Amino acid sequence: MSYRTLEHATDAVIEVTANNLENAFKIAGISVIETILDISKVTENDRKILEVKGKDLKYLLYNWLEEIIILTITDGFAGKRIITTISKDEKEYKINAEIFGETIDLKKHEFKVEIKSPTFHEMKIEQKDNVIMRYLLDL
Q: Which of these, 93, 65, 91, lies nearest to 79 by C-alpha position?
C-alpha cells in the first residue's frame, strides 16, 4: 500500500496502489494531507468524522479528495491517520471515515502548498489484483 507523485508541470498527479478500495481511499486521503503539510509532525489528540457519497467510484474519489481538502485547508484540521469503511447501495457509494489529528499550527506542521481542488482530468480507478487510483490535484 503506497502512493507516489508523478511528474507534472504545475499540478500534483498522484498514483495510489492498495490491496482494496478502503485502503486505497485511506491512502488517497493521506496523500492530500501530505501534499499540504508535514504529516509526521501531527499529533493524534482529536478526531473528525466524515461521510462522503458518490454516484460511482470516480465521483466518490473526487468528493472524498474535496472533503479532505476542505477539512485541512478550510476547517484547519491536520489529519494523521484515517480509518475508512466503504459501502454501496442501489444508488451510490458511501465512505464513512474517522480522521485522527489536531488543529493546524502552520509553524509546527510546515505548510507546503495549497490545493485548490481535485479534478476528473487524468482520473482513473482500476481494480484487479490490487486497486490502482490516479488523480490530479489542482495546485
A: 65
Q: What is the pLDDT of residues 92-139, one digit of tens each?
A: 999 999 999 999 998 899 999 999 999 999 899 999 999 999 999 999
Q: Helix, strand or coil for residue 47?
A: strand
Q: pTM value?
A: 0.94
Q: What is the pLDDT of residues 35-66, one digit of tens each?
A: 999 999 999 999 999 999 999 999 999 999 99
54 Cβ partners below 8 Å, 6+ apart? 60, 61, 62, 63, 64, 92, 93, 94
110: containing domain: 2-138
What is the CATH number for 15? 3.55.10.10
Indicate the number of domains in the chain.
1
Burial class (CB in 10 A: 0-12, 13-18, 19+), 13: middle
Q: What whole-number distance in Å separates Cα of residue 137 and Cα of residue 118?
A: 4
Phi-psi region of 76 (alpha: psi -120 to 50; beta: other; left: phi over 0): left
